[in-house]
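pipeline/complex-builder :: batch 7 item 3
reading input block
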Amino acid sequence: AQSVTQLDSQVPVFEEAPVELRCNYSSSVSVYLFWYVQYPNQGLQLLLKYLSGSTLVKGINGFEAEFNKSQTSFHLRKPSVHISDTAEYFCAVSEAAGNKLTFGGGTRVLVKP
Amino acid sequence: DTAVSQTPKYLVTQMGNDKSIKCEQNLGHDTMYWYKQDSKKFLKIMFSYNNKELIINETVPNRFSPKSPDKAHLNLHINSLELGDSAVYFCASSQTGLTDTQYFGPGTRLTVL
């Protein structure tokens, strides 16, 4: 069965500093990987996804993530954050032959001025 | 235009009551979902429908009954509400399967007193 672990529940970061959010997954088969963002009091919005091909995936708002099969990781990065990036970030995995997304516990990013 | 809408946004009710949450999507998607997000932000799928047919039914109490009158609507009816049902419920939709982006509604915050 698939599972996702987001190693950091909360990440404080100063404005214009880089940020990396860690995500590790567990699955014995091929997977699809996603990062979603949830702004306060809103629904989730897709940042980026990895389905196949290049392991470096670029998403919206300057975010990117790298799929590392050997380390079963899909870490999210942004080189310079803004106050508006303050939100909850969710990593999710689905098995290629499966039928559902499994979400990690979320990482709360708090950008400080 | 709202892509995925849910009503109501807030729902406060007493234990033992029956309540419904409505969801509509105007994206022309074939698949719709219900997720539950608990107080710790943990997000878990409850149900998935594809073209009005039930695809996923996770281990959810049978007090929860989804209904899809057409592929643009997926309503959630909850009988005999319990304190533990308090959560934010999100509806989502996607074009077809797991490789497609899921679009989330704004959520319904259910509080059971």
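note: Chain A has no helices and twelve strands.
queue -> next item
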